[in-house]
Amino acid sequence: MPRTLPEPSVDSFDLTVILSALADPGRRTLMGALYRSVEPIDCAILVERAGLGLSNPTISHHYRVLREAGLTRTVVEGRKRVVRVRRDEMETRFPGLLEAILGTPERAGAPSSV
Q1: Given a cut of 70, is residue 90 above it in pLDDT?
Q2: b/e map of 91-103 (b: 16 or more CB within 10 Å)?
Q3: 3 state DSSP class of 64
Q4: Measured between alpha carbons, how far is 58 from 54 in angstroms, rounded to an integer?
Q5: How many angstroms separate the Cα of 94 from the Cα of each of 9, 14, 33, 71, 106?
Q6: Would you say residue 114 has pLDDT above 60?
C-alpha cells in the first residue's frame, strides 16, 4: 500500500525555508525538472533527466530538503518513490512564487524546451 512521507501543512509553510531549499543549485535543478514535468515522476527517472551526476546520498538529501520545505510530496510505492510538486498548495500560500523562480511549467500539448 502506498504511503506519503511526512511533509509540512500549508499553514506551516515558511518562505525562508522554501527559499533556502531553492538556493542550492542542485535542488533548484531537480525542482525545475520536476516542475516542468507537470505529472508525478519516479525519483530515479527525474535524477536521470536532470543529469546532476551526484551521489545517491546527496540526491536523497536534496529530495528530503525539498519535501521538508513543503515544495514536494513523495509517495512510496514498494521500492519506488514518486515525487510531485505541491503546486496548488504553494500557489495558495505564495501565489506566483514557483513560476517566478522556476519558470512556466509545460502543459499537455505544449512544445518541450528540452
Answers
A1: yes
A2: eebeeebbeeebe
A3: helix
A4: 6
A5: 13, 10, 20, 11, 20
A6: no
Structure confidence at residue 86 (pLDDT): 96
| Type of residue numbered 25 | P
Long-range contacts (CB closer than 8 Å, 24 or more residues apart) made by 86-89: 86/7, 89/10, 89/13
First to last CA, the chain: 34
Q: Tell me the three cell numbers of residue 112.
A: 518541450
Look up the CATH architecture of domain 3-94. Answer: Orthogonal Bundle (1.10)
Average pLDDT of the residues in 69-92 = 94
Give the C-alpha separation, 63 to 1, whole Å: 21
Residue 81's pLDDT is 92
